[in-house]
Amino acid sequence: MNRYALELSDLTMGYGNTTVLHDVNIKVKTGEFVSIFGENGAGKTTLFKGILQLLPITSGSITIFNKDVTQGKDKTWLRSQIGYVPQRHNQGNFPICVFDATLLGRWGTSFSYFKRPSKEDKEIAEKMLEVVDLKHMMHQDCRKLSGGQTQRLNIARALVRNPKLLLLDEPTTHLDLDSKAKLDETIRVIRSQYDLSILMISHDHQHSRKISDRVIQLQSGRISTDHKWDEVMG
Ligand SMILES: Nc1ncnc2c1ncn2[C@@H]1O[C@H](COP(=O)(O)OP(=O)(O)OP(=O)(O)O)[C@@H](O)[C@H]1O
């Protein structure tokens, strides 16, 4: 088994001439759950964009499960390894049911008249909806889901490609206590069932202390703190 799910070495990147992240070094062990904190604009989402190769990096390196992906040559492999749950992502205004929205996570828009989802695609989508406890709603219109249900659907959609590294961008923002607890339970279950390594952007210390192992603080694009939660006082 690979020792690290993710290794960022001296990662520097930004937008145009503006550098947002400066020499960031992060190692996430396989199976570890790490929370990323930082004030607005600290560079948390930019970090995710770098890992997902949605934005080119200026210097440094990115290694995923021992494979150097810095050059971004094998994006198909990268996308098969990483599941991404973006911030406040709803399903838009299309009349699409929960099952179809989950299925779309498997091959994105490459399904067409000529490439129909296979039996396996459908089985995996159904299985993931069961895992996030939405199977009973699989025929429901996505637009009718609550915020918590929508987040669980987003997780199911991220998991249908069997990724090993999951990136969560503030998954519990705007959720009430019950929905938060339900989402935590879902995250706990998927983490153990699918051997996931998780990186989660958060603003909620209490919540993150409860579900993650380690906390990294970004300050103006630099790491200011990196501790296991049980080493942090209070
Ligand atoms: N597309 C973009 N073009 C130019 N600058 C950007 C772009 N996206 C973000 N930035 C800038 O990069 C910096 C870091 O933004 P980023 O979204 O990574 O912060 P964040 O830590 O995720 O903040 P928040 O907690 O508000 O989501 C900010 O100064 C922001 O204005």
Mean pLDDT: 89
Radius of gyration: 18 Å
List cofactors, ions and other ligands. adenosine-5'-triphosphate
Order of strands across the widest beta sheet?
6-7-8-3-9-10
* CATH architecture name: 3-Layer(aba) Sandwich
DSSP summary, beta strand count: 10
List the helices and strands and how they pair.
Elements: E1 4-15, E2 18-29, E3 33-38, H1 44-51, E4 59-64, E5 67-68, H2 75-81, E6 82-85, H3 98-107, H4 119-131, H5 147-159, E7 165-169, H6 177-193, E8 197-201, H7 205-211, E9 214-219, E10 222-228
Parallel strand pairs: 3-8, 3-9, 6-7, 7-8
Antiparallel strand pairs: 1-2, 1-4, 4-5, 9-10
Helix pairs in contact: 3-4, 3-5, 4-5, 5-6
Bound molecules: adenosine-5'-triphosphate.
Provide structural commentary.
The chain is an alpha/beta fold. It has a single domain (4-231), classed as 3-Layer(aba) Sandwich (Rossmann fold), CATH 3.40.50. The chain is built from 7 helices and 10 strands. It has helices at residues 44-51, 75-81, 98-107, 119-131, 147-159, 177-193, 205-211, and strands at 4-15, 18-29, 33-38, 59-64, 67-68, 82-85, 165-169, 197-201, 214-219, 222-228. The strands form 2 sheets. It has a 6-stranded mixed β-sheet, sandwiched between helices. Strands 2-1-4-5 form a 4-stranded antiparallel β-sheet, covered by helices on one side. Strand 7, helix 6 (177-193) and strand 8 (197-201) form a beta-alpha-beta unit. The longest helix is centred in the last third of the chain and has 17 residues, at 177-193. Adenosine-5'-triphosphate binds at residues 15, 20, 38, 40-46. This is ABC transporter ATP-binding protein. Keywords: ATP-binding, Nucleotide-binding, Transport. Residues 6-234 form the ABC transporter domain. InterPro entries: AAA+_ATPase, ABC_transporter-like_ATP-bd, Metal_Ion_Import_ABC, P-loop_NTPase. GO terms for molecular function: ATP binding; ATP hydrolysis activity.
